[in-house]
Structure formats: C-alpha cells, structure tokens
Write the structure tokens for this entry.
Amino acid sequence: MSGKIGISGALFLFLCLSELFGQKFDSIAMTPPMGWNGWNSFKCRINETVIREVANAMVTNGMMDAGYSYLVIDDCWQTGRDVNGTILADPVRFPSGMKILGDYIHSRGLKFGIYSDAGNSTCRGRPGSRGHELRDAMTYATWGVDYLKYDWCSHGTLDAESSYRLMRDALYKAGRPVVYSICEWGKNEPWQWGKDIGHLWRTTPDIINCFDCRNIWGGMGVLQIIDRMADLGSFAGPGHWNDADMLQVGNGNLTPAEERLHFSMWAMFSSPLIAGNDIRNMSEETLSILTNREVIAIDQDRLGISATRWLKSGDLEIWFKPLDRGEFAFCLINRGSRTITINQNLKTTISNHYTIDDSYVVRDLWKHKIIGNTSEILKGYLCPHDVLLISLTARVY
Ligand code: GAL
C-alpha cells in the first residue's frame, strides 16, 4: 500500500486538526477594521435606543459610505447568566434582546460588535467569559455577532496567550466569522503572539482624551500612544493589526489641529479606525475629520505597512509610510508649542529600499490639493500640535 494519503486525505486531516485545535477566521480584516464603539464617550450609559440611533447616524451622515462598518457595544450590556449559564443582556437597557438589536444593525447594512472579558468579570464587574467561552461564542453566533472585543480584567493568574487562544477556538467552533479584537492593553506583548489568534490587538492601556498626558493607570494621550506604536510596525499587516485604541476625535478636549494629527497618525499606523464620539451629535468639523477619505485611504492601503519615524528634529517629526502602487505618505507633526518652519527635501532613499526621486506630485490630504512636487523643497509652517499629511503620487508629464 502506498504511503501517500492524497489530496482528499490531506484535506480531511487538515479539517480534523483545525477542528481539534481551532484557528482564527482568515481573510477577514484584511484592512484595518473601521467602526464605532461608545466607550470613550458613553462608558456604561448605553442602551438599545442609543445603539439604534448611532446605527442610523452612521448610515445617514456618510460614515458608512466612508468605510465605517462595525458598531461595537462595549462593557455593561450584560447582567448575568441564566440557569444554563447563557449570558443575559441587561433587560432594562436592552429590552428587545441582542438578536433583535443585531438584526437591526444588519438591516442598516452595518456589522454587529460586542464585548466580553477573558476573566471572571469585565472591567466594570459584569460577567466575563471565563469557563463559558464556547457557550458565549455560540450565543454570539445566534445573535449574529461579527466582532468581539475581548478584555483582560480579573484574569488572575491566567496566561494571556492561552486565554485568548481559548476564545479564538470557541469562536471558530461556533462557526460564524468574527473579527477578534485582543484587548489586553499591550501588557503581554500581544504583537509577539497575536497574529494567529486575533485580527487586532491593543498596544496600550486606555487612550485618554488629551494630546500629551498620562494617568496613574497607565492611560495615554495621543503623543504617548504614537511613541508606543513607533517600534511595533513590523508585527502588523493584513489580517493582524496593531490597535492604537479607539479615537478621541469629537470628544471635546483636543483642538481641531490635534484631532487631525491624531487621525492622521492612526492612519499612518494602519490602526483600526474606531470612532469613539457621540456621532449622533457632532460638529461638521468632526464629521469632516472622521470622513476624510484621502486620510482613510492611507489607513486602508492594501499593503498595510505601518509608518516609521523617518526624521526627528526637536518637536518636528516626519513619519513615512510606503503605499500600494509605488506611492508614499509622509506625515509631519509638530509635538511642541512653537510654530516650526519646514524646509525639507523629500528626495531620498529610505531603508535602502524606497527611492524618492523628483517624479512625484505632493498632495496635502487635509487641504485636498496639490502643493508641489518632489523636485522642489517642501516649505511652509507647522503650527503647534498641527500636522501636514501628504501623499506622493507619480507625476504625469
Ligand atoms: C478596558 C478597555 C476599554 C473598555 C473598558 C470597559 O479594559 O481597555 O477600552 O473596554 O475596559 O470596561
């Protein structure tokens, strides 16, 4: 008898093994997920009316058309478990139940995201999924859940990698493709082990609504997160992203310049773009930042290469990101409180690999206009905490 098992035998073996060990759902999140999560603005003050109104707003205000698709309900939607251990939604805040809410979200053309925790309870003391992973995954599948943010509170002595793997396997077994968001705040370096487990992993403790600050729980402002992201780019790529946390755009504490800088840098890092403001009530300016398609295109670039800090000179930093079709983005940021004069030659070779000659058109992605080409020196001023985000595209002679 031949020792060969043939293609169908190999396939059968593969299916058995993946059934045994599980795997993550492939080919979803090939570009960074975009959506909304209420935590940064609502905390626990969510209910099904808010969620329905947010869904409606996402459809009518142009966010859905700009690429936002996941509507994620964060902590505090759950209250307990029934006698069988099935997780229960808060009957006061979500009287219609999650299946009906999920159906509504889907009926608007959006995707439904939910939150749980790898420990016994969530960060706000609600039931976690520990010991109930498969039951929860199957429940989510019946509700039509498309995205799970999985937190790390009350984990005790659990090991992060195996805990996240356990829920990955449960989701896979439940059979409904789910984008799996690892939220353990970067504590156990998930960029080292997360690629085959989740589709995105948080790199930091919680983002704070400030440009340049920290809090005692390790929370970080925009600049602190940028610095944390700086060395992690090589770990991310299509299907597995460094998550710089949900956006603070529109939450009232950043200046318009700081918001543009924040949004630009998240795009430069190919971080998920998860709006975190009350999108039912936002200014035109906030909406125009969140829906700037030229910036979103940098985030969603097919190659998914994260930016590197190319130059640093005092408070001026220039970040560089290679794009599809031989194009590039540069992001100049002013971290300080004084206006900076820009006088920069962009013709260069970066990492011995990317050569920028004088054949590129330079476009300002916030002003939406061409501002020159690479045969010229880039000149201008950068106000405090402001940003200049440019793309370099081939010149047509
Ligand atoms: C934190 C998490 C936040 C939010 C919160 C809910 O651990 O980083 O993004 O989900 O829990 O309690």
Remarks:
- The longest helix spans residues 6-21.
- Residues 39, 74-75, 122-124, 151, 153, 183, 185, 206 surround beta-D-galactopyranose (CB under 6 Å).
